[in-house]
Design brief:
With about 500 residues, this protein is mainly α. A two-stranded antiparallel ribbon has the order 1-2.
């Protein structure tokens, strides 16, 4: 509550400290859970050409196979975070894992591209429940001085899960079927549930009361769906009356969402969290950078297969250097941001991503892996490593602990929504429509344009970070000068409290 006492219930569990057995188990559970969702987002990309051929899908069909998942994820992730804060983050996380596993089974059995899109939308609902919960569990259960380090480890390990997706997907497609990329989620989900039930403590927001914001969730889903459909169809058929009407409906629904949240007694997105300039700036950077990442991962594996003639497995192996770089350096990136503040890493990281994308834009028919692909993915991986952990830690440190689930949900919604919009818009701008992915020359030209657009977005993200991110040390964001403490010894910066009751006691 702004200006009031902040209490975060941890169900009588002591804060978890770094390096203890329970810390490792909690990290394992949250990384497994979020990793399933991240893995699924990237593993699908490497299988897109095979899915398209087997199910006779167009470029628009492939876009919806990706965006069907992202749409429900981005639409409902805010309410997923709110549900976790109210009913218990571990409980909602478990529901999300089970839901995701059932939807994955439906994806693996889908007979048509339309039914696959529908099953992917169901997957997104599960992802909306488990994704914010994984990070909120860390924020709510770890001791304040260990949160930045835990978030850094979570970011790196979850990022690795996303990065190995293309390799795993390629191997499964070559050795079995594209359907296995969905069916593999079931045993992973079982393992996640087992670890979570045994080792993860329950945390919640003790002040979260009231009803569920159904109106807000419905308006978000309608707005994003209508805008996405209008953008994808405009790329395929141009600006028709139907696309213009859908776009108008989508924009009106999103505007209605803001109005509803402003007036709701129990909004799923409390608008006061945007009073923190650091939170707003970090999400602005997220939107631009993750738009770049979304279109890159959508097109890169397709380009390697359709233009360079790689098998799905070889296309997956081609991106393994990203995994290696993130495995080696992600934890150090989190520690660096904790030591020097997030501004420099969040500036240099996106610029490194942009440089890698410029290198990848040079990939054309006849390019060699070591001469064209490898330099690009290494530079891209270095930039991504410097970006992810500091950005995530900055978003969480910019709000009070009671909003951990909502803050995580907002940031995930922004990142997924940005990727969805980029996938909806950029292929049409780059000339990748119809069955263009089946023509290597056409796809190569479109890929180059798309990568240069993506590089511009990433570079813009770095510039925004330099201009608007304050150089606060994420792990110490709750500590502030005595002049900024109120009479109950709480710190308020930018209108948003940065210290919980326990933080205030520990720090002061």
């Amino acid at each position: 509550m702004i200006g009031g006492i902040v209490r975060v219930s941890i169900d009588k569990n002591e804060p978890i400290t770094w390096g203890t057995p329970q810390a490792r188990w909690v990290l394992l559970a949250t990384v497994l859970g979020s990793g399933i969702a991240f893995l699924d987002m990237t593993v699908v990309n490497v299988a897109l050409p095979t899915i398209g051929r087997e199910l006779h899908a167009s470029v628009a069909g492939l876009q919806w196979i990706v965006n069907g998942y992202t749409l429900t994820l981005a639409s409902l992730i805010l309410i997923g975070g709110s549900l976790g804060d109210r009913f218990g983050r571990r409980r909602v996380f478990l529901v999300g894992i089970v839901w995701f596993a059932v939807a994955s089974l439906l994806c693996g059995l889908a007979p048509t591209d339309e039914s696959l899109v529908a099953a992917r939308a169901l997957q997104g609902i599960g992802g909306a429940l488990l994704t914010p919960g994984s990070l909120a569990i860390i924020q709510g259960s770890f001791a304040s001085h260990d949160r930045a380090r835990a978030v850094g480890a979570w970011s790196g390990l979850s990022g690795i899960a996303a990065a190995i997706g293309p390799f795993v997907g390629g191997w499964l497609v070559v050795e079995g079927s594209w359907r296995l990329i969905f069916l593999i989620n079931v045993p992973l989900a079982v393992a996640t549930v087992a670890v979570t039930l045994r080792h993860v403590p329950e945390t919640r927001d003790a002040e979260s009361v009231g009803g569920i914001d159904v109106a807000g969730a419905a308006l978000t889903a309608l707005g994003l769906a209508a805008v996405s459909w209008a953008l994808i169809e405009s790329g395929e058929r141009g600006a028709t009356a139907a696309t213009l009407l859908a776009g108008a409906i989508g924009i009106a629904a999103l505007a209605g969402f803001v109005a509803v949240e402003r007036r709701s007694r129990h909004p799923m997105l409390p608008l006061e969290i945007w009073r923190s300039r650091q939170f707003t700036a970090a999400n602005l950077v997220t939107f631009v950078v993750y738009g770049s990442l979304g279109i890159t991962f959508f097109l890169l594996s397709v380009n390697l297969q359709q233009v360079l003639g790689y098998s799905p497995m070889k296309a997956g192996l081609a991106t393994v250097p990203i995994t290696i770089v993130m495995l080696a350096l992600s934890a150090r990136a989190g520690q660096l941001a904790e030591r020097i503040g997030p501004r420099l890493p969040m500036t240099v990281g996106p610029l490194g991503v942009a440089a890698g994308l410029v290198l990848l834009s040079r990939v054309h028919e006849g390019s060699t892996y070591t001469g064209a692909v490898l330099p690009g993915v290494i530079v891209f991986g270095l930039g991504l490593t410097l970006t992810v952990a500091p950005l995530t830690a900055t978003v969480l440190a910019a709000t009070s602990a009671r909003y951990a689930g909502i803050a995580s949900g907002v940031n995930n919604a922004v990142s997924r929504g940005a990727g969805m919009l980029a996938i909806a818009v950029i292929p049409g701008v780059a000339g990748l429509t119809g069955n263009a992915y089946l023509d290597p020359a056409t796809f190569a030209r479109g890929f180059r344009i798309a990568m240069l657009i993506s590089a511009t977005l990433a570079a813009a993200g770095g510039a925004l970070a330099w201009l608007f991110i304050r150089n606060e040390v994420a792990g110490r964001a709750h500590a502030c000068p005595a002049a900024q403490l109120d009479r109950r010894r709480y710190c308020a910066v930018d209108g948003a409290p940065l210290a919980t009751e326990r933080d205030a006691i520990e720090t002061h």
